[in-house]
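Quick one, T. Sequence first:
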Amino acid sequence: MRLPTREDVDALVGPATPHFAYQLRARVEELVRDMPEDDPVKRYAVEQMERLDRLGHASSKAEDSPREARTRIGWDEMPSSAPAYAPLPRRE
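Structure tokens:
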């Protein structure tokens, strides 16, 4: 597999909207996870992840709201119902 490039990072970050900022951030993080910290592409990706954090946070009032109860009707039917503070185990 080839090393990621700035263009690869831009392809993920470019269409970012507040609604999907954190999902895109996770993809960028996964893309560059194994790269050395001093790699220019990884440094660029980290800057873009910070930008996505700001985009997602600026559009969210979630931190000011109480956590959704897992007993809420329909919660167990949602495939992505695991909250960030208690994520599902990674699938291998």
